[in-house]
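User: Assemble these into one structure.

Assistant: Restating your components, then the assembled model:
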Amino acid sequence: SQQGEEDPQALSIQEGENATMNCSYKTSINNLQWYRQNSGRGLVHLILIRSNEREKHSGRLRVTLDTSKKSSSLLITASRAADTASYFCATVSDNYGQNFVFGPGTRLSVLP
Amino acid sequence: KAGVTQTPRYLIKTRGQQVTLSCSPISGHRSVSWYQQTPGQGLQFLFEYFSETQRNKGNFPGRFSGRQFSNSRSEMNVSTLELGDSALYLCASSGQGPHEQYFGPGTRLTVT
């Protein structure tokens, strides 16, 4: 079974609204990363949060990590149509030999 | 710095044939990972090469193989293609350690 699971599977919002996506995982991790993928293209790294960090910001992105609940959230503030994409969380864990394990992703649609 | 490049971008093959995909990592990156992405299974890890050695391997049959050259360029080969091998194949490079990965645009393989 997959290490990471994103929630919701799909999200549709209006431009200017905030979008929140969640990721849950099963085993202890070294770090957790969020990636964005525009339709059928390669993934773009957004942000990395280490297991000893609780919150991290990058521009309009805010990521939180709760290791006790084995969950993370990605908040995109003041969303734009260009934010329309799929968002994936990836965990890096000794349990998986330092491999990146990706969740199924959240499909975000930002309507103009 | 030039990004990760993958060739070819699109490929159509027939069942039973074999295929070789190529990936050139970012200059200075020694780790190259390969992923298969399908609508049903999501992003699945195939293998990772570091300094010409396979360091990690995912749960794929032996028909999937890879190699890395001394200049860090990598190839993956799929023999005896099956319809289910139709997918977007992504490669990603990174520096040493489980840091963020930089993805190429992918090779879209269609098996008919």
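Chain A has a mean pLDDT of 90.
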